[in-house]
Amino acid sequence: MRQITGLNSQKGELSQAKDALSQQLSDLQSEFDTLTSAAMEKQDKIGSLEALVGEKESELKSALAASEATTASLRSEMGSLSEKVEAQNVQISSLDKRLKEKEKKCLQQEEKLHDLQEQAIQANSDHQEDLSSLKTLQ
Asked: Which segments carry the region annotation Disordered (predicted)?
């Protein structure tokens, strides 16, 4: 009977140890479930952030492409405007040259006019002298 009592005592101890281990296992399972749930939440958040990063990368690529297209368009327009400015400068040069030629002709004509006026004054003076001479002869 002692053996039975000893075995019963061991059985009780083993049962208590089993209960303690079962409780520890249950606690560990609960902690594992909590950690798994937290990890899944973090994974969901990581997935959301990765999707957001993907969207932002796509937006940046689109903005960059639009910026490059705008830059190319502006460069083309600047080239066209530069050509127009160069053509305008050539035209201005030509007009400036013609203007100088016209100014030169105007100066020459003014000189001729001045000479003609002097000749007219001289002729008038000579005519007046001739008239005076005629009057004195009469």
From this structure: 117-138
Averaged over 10-14, what is the pLDDT?
A: 84
Residue type, 128: Q
Distance between CA atoms of residues 86 and 92, nearest Å: 10
Quick check: helix, strand or coil at residue 24? helix
Alpha carbon 99 to its chain's center? 43
**pTM recorded for the entire structure:** 0.48
**Contacts for 10-13: CB closer than 8 Å, 24+ residues apart:** none
Q: Based on C-alpha coordinates, what's the Rg of the chain?
A: 57
**Tokens found for residue 80:** 């066209």
Q: How far apart are CA 10 and CA 58, in angstroms?
A: 69
CA 77 vs CA 64, 66, 72, 91: distances in Å: 20, 16, 9, 21
Token pair, residue 12, equals 């009780």
Query: What is the tens place of the pLDDT at every residue in 44-97?
Result: 999 999 999 999 999 999 999 999 999 999 999 999 999 999 999 999 999 999
Measured distance CA(135)–CA(12) in Å, rounded: 175
